[in-house]
Amino acid sequence: MSSTNITIRELVKQGEQILKEFGIRDAKIDARLLILSLLECDVTQLLLSQEQIAAEHLKASFMYLIAKRTQGIPLQYITSEQSFMGLDFYVDERVLIPRQDTEILVEKTIKLINKKKQPIEGIEIGTGSGCIAISLVYYVQNLKMTSIDVSPKALEVAQKNCKTYNCNEKIKFIESDLFENVKNGKVYDFVISNPPYISIEDHATLEREVLECEPRLALTDEGDGLKFYRDISKQAKTYLKRGGFIAFEIGYNQGITVREILENEGYSHVEVIKDLARKDRVVIAYKL
Fold this sequence. Notes:
- By secondary structure, this protein is α/β, with parallel strands linked by helices.
- About 40% of the residues lie in helices and about 20% in strands.
- The chain has helices at about 10-20, 25-40, 45-50, 55-70, 75-80, 100-115, 130-140, 150-165, 200-205, 210-215, 225-240, 255-265, and strands at about 80-85, 85-90, 120-125, 145-150, 170-175, 190-195, 240-250, 270-275, 280-285.
- The strands form two sheets. It has a seven-stranded mixed sheet with strand order 5-4-3-6-7-9-8, sandwiched between helices. Strands 1-2 form a two-stranded antiparallel ribbon.
- α7 (about 130-140) links the parallel β3 (about 120-125) and β4.
- The longest helix is centred in the N-terminal third of the chain and has 15 residues, at about 55-70.
């Protein structure tokens, strides 16, 4: 096919074919999402314009993005966007890409918060892109959050997303290793965290895109994958109100162990919640 006078539809088809040749899974979807990002339009607008001749600058830009995708760079880092809880978040290589499974943690927490009528304060350990805290304050009116991350680069991304959703007055960001820089004597209604829970052994087996592109600091604790559950569970007791809860995202095979960690630290009513694939995904526990 000639490289001149091709339609947008034909251009996308070319991109899809290149991605397939490089073994990119979901090549058709990725090619379409890349053109949508470039055109800054939705699917309906794309369908209406797909028979138009593609401008030279559009072809060059699209093929540049296709080339980046063939190198194994995640689609979300190319488009700088990932949807989470119905919201669009800016993401880049400084932060972990938000996963759909994490929505279960947020949804469960919202249900628990909504049982309380008074103003609520929560603290998040390891905010990354800010998707958890921002989603919580976006959907819960009477909530304020303190969000912590040890990475100043991650906090830059979280603050950028916070400005997008005008929630600066509802979220305070702190650079801290766990609770290290949290004010002594301050207590919260809940602690929430999706910590690095991949063991050092499992980290080596991750897909190339994750292993080579996403921040290692956000993926593994360089040990058995349980370090942060132990540390947060122990330290959180000082910062939780009586009757407050702790909410963790966990790996599919960590439910029993994380339950034991929490029970050994004196938490009660520990609940392990499964995801849509019927795998352990969230643990909730209370401080009495």
